[in-house]
Amino acid sequence: MKIISWNCSGGFRKKYPRTFNLKADILIIQECENPYNYPEFFKKLEHTKYFWEGENQNRGIGIFFNETIDLKLLNWSSEFSISIPGVISEHLRWNTKDLKQFLGVSISENHNLIAVWTKGGKNQSFRYIGQFWKYLLANKSNIVEKPTIIIGDFNSNSIWDKIDRWWNHTEIIKILNSWNYKSLYHEAYTEKQGEEKIPTFFLQRKKEKSYHIDYAFLPNELLKNSEIQLGKFEDWIDLSDHVPLIIEFEF
User: Is Hydrolase among the key words of this record (predicted)?
Assistant: First the structure.
């Protein structure tokens, strides 16, 4: 199975042909418009089936697939709470449905997939990777119980760790490792977190302002039968500030 994750920077209808050439079974597209608003257009494409959610009708996250794949939407609504002696706050408890932006599906009877585009309001401490930290804690039982591919735009890298935030990038990698999940890119290229040689994001679409912020985390049992490729700057920069993450694996 081939899965592609790509932050298209909006206007996916105009950019779809470029992804079609990659022959993906599943497309995960961040910052895409709501396909339910354009049924006549999307029914003409090869990936005629989709799930989508977002706070903005022009900028959400979508999973696109064809008729040969039977994906089912996961409606996880798990909660998690933290107990701190002497602290009474409603913010120590959260629900999966309040976190942004995660879209989960089952891709087989025994495997799940979580599409990721981390977000967060300007006034939130738990922005971006903090949202993923909350998501992991709330859904540990689901993720550990059934092998899950977690893939997308995380807007995060260990180079931005802040030591007074226990939800930083490095801590999340530790959590995933303890559950036997690893980054496919780092395993394939034998690179350390924060020392990535191949970027996935180019700030202001400039090659000299590059970062690695897109990831695919897989359980150990899938890693050995998986491959990963990253799109090239010159092939995608005219369409987006991100290049696609392309993974292939066998169950």
Answer: yes
Distance CA 239, CA 20 (A): 14
> Sheet of 102-106: strands edge to edge?
72-73, 102-106, 112-117, 148-153, 214-219, 181-183
Fold designation for 2-249: Deoxyribonuclease I; Chain A (3.60.10)
Q: Per residue, what are the HEC states of 120-179?
A: CCCCCCCCCHHHHHHHHHHCHHHHHHCCEEEEEECCCCHHHCCCCCCCCHHHHHHHHHHC
Closest CA to 31 of 44, 50, 13: 13
Q: Where do the domains of the chain lie?
A: 2-249
The Cα angle at residue 215 between residues 209 and 219, in degrees rounded to 5:
160
Of 114, 100, 215, 113, nearest in space to 169 by CA: 215
pLDDT at 143 over 70: yes
Higher pLDDT, 126 or 116: 116
Q: Kindly tell me if the per-residue pLDDT of 13 is higher than 90.
A: yes
Q: How do residues 65-123 score in pLDDT, each as one tens digit?
A: 988 899 999 989 999 988 888 888 777 889 999 999 999 999 999 999 999 999 976 66
Q: Contact, 75 vs 218, CB < 8 A?
A: no
The rounded distance, in Å, linking the Cα atoms of 46 and 57 is 22
The model's pTM: 0.95
Q: Give the C-alpha separation, 149 to 217, whole Å.
A: 6
What torsion, rounded to 10 degrees, do the Cα atoms 134, 203, 173, 73 define? 50
> What mean pLDDT do residues 163-184 have?
95
Question: 33, 73 in Cβ contact below 8 A?
Answer: no
